[in-house]
Amino acid sequence: MDNRYLQQFKKGSLEMILLCLIGRKETYGYEIITELNNNGAAVLGYAKEGTVYPILYRLQQAGLIQCRIAPAAANGGSKKYYSLTPKGKETLYELIAFWGKYTECVDSFIGEDLRMEALK
After folding, report:
1. Residues 59/19, Cβ–Cβ less than 8 Å
2. Could you give the angle at which helices 3-24 and 49-61 cross, rounded to 10 degrees?
3. Alpha helices in the chain (DSSP H)
4. Most buried residue, 20, 35, 59, 90, by most Cβ within 10 Å?
């Protein structure tokens, strides 16, 4: 199969996944990347800084997340902690609702016969 179809599909859902992770708790970039790689690498592929940080920047520019800078205990530097804004929380809920309808719709097209054939 042509890998570009999978890549495009994954790319389209990554913003929602990042909003979900940030919605769970205030977090920072490396923690987000680690979570993606520990729990999603088998399906999403290996998450890299060059993929995640531009999305975080876009989400911040859109007013969906905010960040605060705090001192990093380990190296004396600083960390950027991300959290959802009220607009981000509302958008996340809308995306989750859409995702439910979307997967239901796609599943209706796939049907049980095609699903069983694909799993062979």
Report:
1. yes
2. 60
3. 3-24, 29-39, 41-44, 49-61, 86-118
4. 59
Query: In terms of pTM, does the model score above 0.90?
Result: no
* 56 class by beta-carbon count within 10 Å (0-12 exposed, 13-18 middle, 19+ buried): buried
Tell me the domain boundaries of the chain. 3-118
- In which band, very low, low, confident or very high, does the pLDDT at 90 lie, cut at 50, 70 and 90? very high
CATH class, range 3-118: mainly alpha
Neighbouring residues of 64: CB distance < 8 A, sequence distance ≥ 6: 19, 84, 85, 87, 88, 91, 92
- Rounded Cα distance between 91 and 86, Å, is 9
* pLDDT per residue as tens digits for the range 19-52: 999 999 999 999 999 999 998 887 887 788 888 9
Handedness of CA 101, 58, 44, 85 (dihedral sign): negative
Q: Closest Cα partner for 17 from 103, 81, 85, 96?
A: 96
CA-to-CA distance for 97 and 23, rounded, in angstroms? 15
